[in-house]
Automatic annotation (TrEMBL):
It catalyses: L-proline + NADP(+) = (S)-1-pyrroline-5-carboxylate + NADPH + 2 H(+); L-proline + NAD(+) = (S)-1-pyrroline-5-carboxylate + NADH + 2 H(+). Residues 2-92 form the Pyrroline-5-carboxylate reductase catalytic N-terminal domain. This is Pyrroline-5-carboxylate reductase. It is found in: Cytoplasm. GO terms for molecular function: pyrroline-5-carboxylate reductase activity. Residues 155-259 form the Pyrroline-5-carboxylate reductase dimerisation domain. Belongs to the pyrroline-5-carboxylate reductase family. Its main location: cytoplasm. Pathway: Amino-acid biosynthesis; L-proline biosynthesis; L-proline from L-glutamate 5-semialdehyde: step 1/1. The gene is proC.
């Protein structure tokens, strides 16, 4: 299977690495920045400067910024193999918008990734456009599966997926920043604060992933009556931390809808 990746930035580079690790060896990265192309080539990737290089690809991953999609589409439309599948990873851009510009024979799929894909622990929410066969969708699910877990969702849910898992790693890193800073303030050296925080996040995520209990129940088991956890959670509630997080996720979903 020949794969072309248009946009070799943070997410494009991540996906290329994941697919290469999974054994895909016919990948070309279309990247307009000469500096970035040189970096990708140093990592052993085949690159091209012009979108025309998608000619002959079975699957094209579109991984440019949402505002750059409109400039790439007309070139894709003329260069693409008529039987190609285009997978857009651009936040907020609807499959209908892409389908309008591309030939009817081209299958269009939308996918929202996240950055843990760089270590094969990503989360992808995938939505087929209006003319995608089950076989084509399976191919895309398999391909993205090289970077982590894949769920298929109706496209109307993509703003919510973007807000929860697309942007989600940033929320976790934000929590990590606060915990590390607070640990240092409480007297830990920075390295110890980081180790304690990271292992706590890892262990808690794995405990949650392997449990049938909801997170609220796992939280209850940590919380002794009138103990330290109770003091922390009460303070979070008093300061509206939970509501703040939900408002943040809503703002991300609203911004995703706006970008579309
Ligand atoms: N970084 C993230 O965590 C996530 C990113 N995304 C989506 O992935 C897409 C890419 O994001 P990033 O990789 O973070 O951006 P980025 O800016 O790191 O990468 C985009 C790359 O595309 C290249 N590019 C732009 N126009 C081009 C053209 N016409 N031809 C060839 N190359 C071109 C740029 O030079 C750049 O290297 C965005 O649409 C974003 O919404 C989605 C979910 C998560
Ligand atoms: O912040 C953004 O717009 C992109 C989409 C999800 C993660 N990063």
């Amino acid at each position: 299977m020949r794969i072309a990746v248009v946009g070799g930035g943070v997410m494009g580079g991540t996906l290329v690495e994941a697919m290469a690790r999974a054994g895909h060896d016919d990948i070309v990265v279309v990247e307009r920045s000469p500096e970035r192309r040189a970096e990708l080539e140093a990592q052993g990737r085949a690159t091209a400067a012009d979108v025309e290089a998608v000619a002959g690809a079975d699957v094209v991953l579109l991984v440019v910024k949402p505002q750059d999609v409109a400039t790439v589409l007309p070139v894709l439309a003329s260069a693409l193999d008529p039987e190609a599948t285009v997978v857009s990873l651009a936040a907020g851009v609807r499959t209908a918008t892409i389908e309008e510009t591309l030939p009817d024979s081209v299958s269009v799929v939308r996918a929202m990734p996240n950055t843990p894909a760089v270590i094969g622990r990503g989360m992808f929410g995938v939505s087929p456009g209006s003319r995608v066969s089950d076989d084509r969708l399976d191919t895309v699910v398999d391909l993205l599966g090289s970077g982590g877990e894949v769920v298929v969702v109706d496209e109307s849910r993509q703003d919510a997926v973007t807000a929860v898992s697309g942007s989600g790693p940033a929320y976790v890193f934000y929590l990590a920043e606060q915990m590390i800073e607070a640990g240092i303030d409480a007297g830990l050296d920075p390295e110890a604060a980081r180790t304690l925080t990271v292992q706590t996040l890892l262990g808690s995520a794995e405990l949650l992933a392997g449990s049938d209990d909801p997170p609220a129940e796992l939280r209850r088991r940590v919380t002794s009556p009138n103990g330290t956890t109770h003091a922390a959670i009460t303070t979070f509630d008093d300061r509206g931390v939970g509501e703040g997080i939900r408002a943040g996720v809503r703002a991300a979903a609203a911004r995703s809808a706006e970008l579309g």
